[in-house]
Amino acid sequence: MTNAPLISMLVIGLGLAFVFGTLAHRLKLSPIAGYLMAGVAVGPFTPGFIGDSSIAQQLADVGVILLMFGVGLHFSLKDLLSLKKAVIPSVFGQVAVSASLGAAAAWLFGLGIGAAIVFGMCLSVASTVVLLRTMQNRRLLDTERGRLAIGWLIVQDFITVLALVLIPVLAEWLKAQDSGAAFDAGRLVQTLAVTFGTLIAFVVFMMVVGRRTIPAILHYVAHSGSRELFRLAVLSVALGVAFLAAELFGVSFALGAFFAGMILSESQLSARAAEESLPLRDAFAVLFFVSIGMLFNPLVLVNDTLALAVSVAIVIVVNGAVAYSLTRLSGYSVETALVMAVGLAQIGEFSFILADLGIGLGLLTERGRDLILGTSILTILANPFLVALATRIHPAHPAGEPVEPDTPPELHPTALSHHAILVGYGRVGSLIGRALKDRHERFLVIEDADRLVLSLREARIEVIPGNAVDPHVLEAANIKEARLLLIAIPNGFEAGQIVQQSRARNPQLHIIARAHSNDEVEYLLRLSADDVIMGEREIARGMIEQAYGQADAAPRAASPALAGSAPPP
Hints:
Blueprint: H1 5-26, H2 31-41, H3 53-73, H4 77-81, H5 87-108, H6 113-122, H7 128-137, H8 144-179, H9 185-224, H10 227-249, H11 253-265, H12 270-294, H13 300-303, H14 305-329, H15 334-343, H16 349-360, H17 366-393, E1 420-423, H18 427-438, E2 443-447, H19 450-458, E3 463-465, H20 471-476, E4 484-487, H21 492-505, E5 510-515, H22 518-526, E6 531-534, H23 535-548
Parallel strand pairs: 1-2, 1-4, 2-3, 4-5, 5-6
């Protein structure tokens, strides 16, 4: 396979990631653990195919850029400032305590000062992907606990960004401390001044130029009506800003991509940009985790058991205990503190980014990296079991403590019956909802975007927050007693799952779904949707009606997208 190393790496890396990720999902584990194990399988420390590490590293760099771009898209100063004032110091306190203990442990393991600092930072920041997945699985994102978790992650992301700036500046001084060599303090001050001056110049450039040009470019492309060009524009912005930031300002790819996403997050197109870039972000994120797994030497489990056990204990016990204590001191309930404790008891992608930076600067050794990777894999594997344990505890509320609702909003059942259910309130769904409201129909909306949920509540339209694929959400919408289901989401595969579950619960339900192709039409009809509407056919029908009148338009039953017939050959 040496003739096509890039294709080999993509095919085998993604293929094994799919296999191990599926297995992890079946075992109720995070798919990230499966992706990491796929990397171990194609790494140099296991027999069989060995992936090209240089190509894997470049693919990982693209994954880092898109990951940090996604973080920037969801970074909201408004959400951060809406948290209790005590939360921000709490996050800084948790990171400081965990990083200090991690650094002390690394120093006892025999690592140098610079390596110990990087090691401690890696053990102090949780994986955004794992924590958000935990919140989603427990349907807590729309609760006070979910908002606290998101805010905690935002502050940790901010701390990670600061570390990405400061560690390269302090690298020479830290290496001098390890070797005992003399170091010119004036040189350190000069380096700090140059670095922060360059960073300020980059921030000013992004706030003045980027803030105007990036949204303007995307708005222009959006008005062209081409989804393909819009998707290409989003990716060009993410990759282009990251590359220019590194070439012109000496800023890391990760930091440049983060700022690109943060600038775009202020635009009305941020939600669409996140949606359009998600498939590629997911694909390269998988390759990022695979490339990280390739670096892991499984022998560390045997050769460095004590150090690995201490590292895992710091992440699970120390991170969890500190998060629990500080959350309680901030005035939150025991249940919320417990959720935060188990949610933060793992490390992931940001630890890998920091470890890779430490290796590149010559601060962190391969042994330190192996311990970080081993700690990540073990804590991600343990996290679902910790969450299950915390769920069974159900501690009682102390006297006088305000009780937070244990049941998230999506589990509150509707009082409606013989009603219509509208799934999705985007561009199509909002038009349908307006028509239903004008007709004074009894209906509710199922929507998982927080922004749309808030706007629906402000408009006094009943909404069930969540994904309609979730059986609990369908039950809360009283699918068994509904008369009409309108599926307005653009994802045909997800729509098919909704059709299948809804039909099983209510055989008499009239189901109308949306499709983008004949294949989707056939798929949804096969799953027992009553009618499937394909946009292109409706546009053609409308144009014919406008040009020649209703009588000359194609009969409705002739179109498989408009009725339950089979698609034409």
